[in-house]
Amino acid sequence: MNADKIKKSFNKNKTIWDIVNLETNKTDNTERIDNLYLDGNTISDCQETANAFNKYFLNIAKSINFEQHEPSSHNPENITLLHYLMQSFKNPFQNINLKSTSTREIENIIKYLKPKNSSGYDGISTKLVKICSPFIRSPLAHTCNKSLSSGIFPDHLKYAIVKPLFKVINLKSQIKDLYLF
Mean pLDDT, 10 residues at a time, over the chain (181 residues)? Predict the structure, then answer.
């Protein structure tokens, strides 16, 4: 049972995503992409491939948002979020009972964050969050509980900074090759 897997798991988030991927028939794909076919052209340069993916992911949110706001011919009152989710999964999933969070739980989560200076879209680092913890844990708990009870996730928390990074497979051998010729 999936609930038991999650309870016994050390990394609950990873376990949940593994279950979601299994239920939606998504599997790991570790194939190397040598060529990318885009708009009738073949792209083989790694930097051009990364740029093409970057352009796609930067524009996908705009196109999804536009599609959601287009008028549709079907009756939107008949389509609920639950209906949409049920169509997305191969097996119907069990009821999820979410419990309210507490300021103590928020405090514990903040305590285990790594104190880094880097930040996300909001410009707030985890180091700053840890320093401000006594002042923000109660409002954070309230926001989390309100989001869970209403089923609405704040729009400002849906943004992300996407930076594609080119991964070098075997850096040491490539550096040796550079200095040997």
Answer: 81 83 72 79 84 80 55 54 65 72 95 89 90 95 90 80 68 55 45
Query: How many Cα atoms occupy the beta-carbon half-sphere of 163 within 13 Å?
Result: 4
- Distance (Å, whole) CA 60 – CA 71: 19
Q: Give Cα separations from 156 to 119, 120, 160 (angstroms).
A: 15, 12, 10
Q: Where are the domains of the chain?
A: 99-181
- In the chain, the amino acid numbered 102 is S
Helix axes 126-150, 103-111, angle to 10 degrees: 140
The pTM (predicted TM-score) of the whole model is 0.42
Beta carbons of 25 and 88 less than 8 angstroms apart: no
User: What one-character DSSP code corresponds to residue 119?
Assistant: B
Q: Taking Cα atoms as reference points, which of 89, 59, 64, 84 lies closest to residue 74?
A: 84
CA separation for the pair 60, 49 (Å, rounded): 16
